[in-house]
Write the structure tokens for this entry.
Amino acid sequence: MRYLLLTILFLSACSAATSNESEHQHQGNGVHSNHQTAEVETRTVEEASTEDTARDYFTDTVLVRHDGAQQRFYSDVLADKTVVISFIFTSCPDACPLINAQIQKLQSEVEGRLGDDIHFVSISVDPLTDTAEVLSEYRDKFGAKDGWWFFTGTPEAVTKVSHKLGNVFEKKEQHSTTLLVGNLKTARWRKIPSHLPSNVIGAQLLDIANETLD
């Protein structure tokens, strides 16, 4: 039930992913022209509004960070942070470099907060190829600073986390190109098309990050 709910909350159009997004997203700039009118969507995940329920909701599935550290998904990666989550794989020739270039620009938009209350989380959907060592070299190509983490893991772990975030795909090329921005303290999440200008994405990110509980 929670799996289905999170899928609906994060990616309301996920059921059409194969016929729409996945068909176009690995075709370079064509992807972006097809999504110019996409809207930013914001949701409050009530089932993850407390630490205990959030841990149960997102799970503490273990992933492996680019430096080889094993990290529990909720407790180590998400808890008490605002995160920008993206899905990539290192052999992707078109959409993924564009996503990473956007996130690279975001680093300057949140200067001083990256690695503190804001973290970027890039999850490989090709974990058998993208080992921690491969991801470490890959992130250097995009000038990733402290606070921009890349993750891999067992195929089972990556699939479980991806599904929890509504990223359901049969082939790695079908992964979502949407950025998921979440404030774990307020349980507010926002789905942002990655093709938007980086300053727009940055403003949307800071809007979520600056929210406080009433």
Q: What stands out?
A: Residues 105 and 198 are 6 Å apart (CA to CA).
